[in-house]
Amino acid sequence: MKIIKMVRFCTLPVLFLFLYSESPGQTNFKSLNYLYSISGSKTVAGIHNREPNSIPSLWTDSITIKSGKTPGLWSGDFLFLPEDIKARWDMIYQAEKSWKKGSLVNIMWHTCSPVHSEPCAWNETGVLDHLNDAEWTSLITEGGELNITWKKRLDEIAMYMQYLKEKGVEVFFRPFHEMNQPVFWWAGRKGVDGTAKLYQITHDYLKYTKGLTNLIWIWDIQDFKTLEADLIDYNPGSEYWDLLAMDMYSSDGTGYTLSKYNACLKVAGGKPIAIGECQLLPTSAELLGQPKWTFFMSWAELTVKNNTLPQIKELYKAPNVVTLDELPGWQGKPIN
Predict the structure, then answer these.
(1) What is the CATH number of the domain that holds 285?
(2) Residues whose CB falls within 8 Å of the CB of residue 134, separated by 6 or more in sequence, listed in order
(3) pLDDT tens across 157-208, in order?
(4) Which of 2, 18, 77, 157 is most exposed, with minimal Cβ within 10 Å?
(5) How many domains is the chain built from?
(6) Domain for residue 2, yes or no?
(7) What is the sign of the dihedral through the CA atoms of 204, 276, 157 and 188?
(8) How many Å apart are CA 276 and CA 86, to the nearest integer?
(9) Considering the domain boundaries, does residue 255 fall inside one?
């Protein structure tokens, strides 16, 4: 439940809640409202388009050819390598094009450590860096050296998001994915001053300072054995996210269990949940048994490495799975 901060105008808590609460499924976002409407009955099929950003629909096109159906969710990434940073506009224009076709648009960010410059590499001085405690404190402290560096980094991506806002594109934004995955520089820090704090800082800066009201915020976590505890330890607060996503890589070998599903439902509190990433696709039967997953997003090349062509076709043509041709479309005025 999202509550507008207007406390000074009303001292009666019950009246305040009645006047300023936002009903589930009645948000300012057409695409998010759609997910509310299908929660419990259908799941949108999606796939991520990993690098290169110069070919930002590579994996969407590939799965369309293989399955005969186009995924309903297109996903891109700001990325970190020099050639992909140079091609960010290619990715953004594809996001706009996909939105106009009626897709859900998801953007994530494998971002460089603020301790080092951008671009960077997939190594210990780049995406896989580890900040010491002093560096982390500088990052999350207003006016800290790394805090200033990080906000400059946010200014850079805000330019692209502003373009999409002006074009009326709603973006499911998934920063700091897999918060409980310590391999990333941003992740693996529990508690109020951990990864959740960085998420809050980023959310407030992009939404309020930069005015990016077209972003639908995804809070994302991986399906480790510690999932239930992690959903508490890494939660930035429900006012900071619109959708809860779980990345299903089944590191514990259990797959799409009801315990994982129910743990996410419990914390979501009525907000949509989704499978943020996966290598092994859920079956249509599993989605029928766990019908509140509002979308799944398989990971680029892992989709074809871990699933047979018959499995992909069966899922994409299942009556409880939504592909692009079944989505309602989003055309309208630019977002205010």
Answers:
(1) 3.20.20.80
(2) none
(3) 999 999 999 999 999 999 999 999 999 999 999 999 999 999 999 999 999 9
(4) 18
(5) 1
(6) no
(7) positive
(8) 26
(9) yes
